[in-house]
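Reminder: ligand-aware prediction takes two inputs, not one.
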Amino acid sequence: MEKVVASAPGKVILFGEHFVVYDRPAIVSAINLRAYVEAWKYDEPGVWIRGRRLSNHPASRAIEYIFGKTGFTSGISLKISSDIPASVGLGSSASISVASAATASLLSLKKIDIELVKAAAVEGEKIVHFNPSGIDTTIALYGGGGVYRKSSGFMHVDIPLKKILIVNTGRIRKTGEMVKRVKDFMEQNKERFNMMLEKEEEIIRDAFDAFKNMDLEKLGKLMLENQNLLRELGVSSMEIDEAIKLALDAGAYGAKITGAGGGGCVICLVDEDKIERISKALSSKFKTYLTELSAVGLKEEKT
Ligand code: PMV
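Here is what comes back for the chain with PMV:
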């Protein structure tokens, strides 16, 4: 039976999560943790995993969107495997949606239709995200790194940083709930929120300058400023604050939430020669991953 396979990367948001929902820029990079989806045509209509029908899931929603557009009437059977821990801010569901949508495109059109996959994956993300900015699906699709803005899309910008240390606090949370929490904050603190949006844009501009000169000290400071804004929005947590403190005490330049917060993951900016020391300081409490940045985006894999 014809089998198709696609993979897509997870991501870290280096600067600008949550504010990106309000059409501000964010700096984002794909990471070398990936989700893989194998797929076959299935006799029964619908999306199936190990003989059970999958519904109300980002992958099934994305695939149904594609089949609706292409008129494919058979079903699809999937096998999903992923290196990306789920529900901790690394874009796991978006990469699964993108890779799943790509397999649906391969089965029904014999090619990956990028625009169709993009639209389908955004549909899938609506299930988990409440009001997705589109950043997760965009970076899973295109890979690399750069700046994303809701109204103008993605622009590749070379991010000279090669690696980032990710700390998983182990607390899973729902992105949609965090996005709603920020919406509540915005509604109750309109004036302050507008000032925070301006401040975030300034941080992003300064971060691009600092990237140009690879000024890690400056980048670290900017990360902490970004983190202060996220804390004020109410999306930090005890575990996040603890992970950041441990990282800074062990010599990190800076650290912040990546993704929706409320738990999830923290990224730490570290010198290569201090990585071991900092990982060790964190690993008594948390799981750490040293990940490579600017990984490739959606890829059709050999079967
Ligand atoms: O789902 P996460 O944790 O990777 O967060 C996505 C980033 C947010 O800015 C919080 C939401 C969005 O849609 O941009």
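The chain has a mean pLDDT of 96. The pocket of PMV is lined by residues 17-18, 20-21, 89, 91, 129, 132-133, 135-136, 175, 178-179, 259-260, 264 (CB under 6 Å). We will return to this case in the review session.
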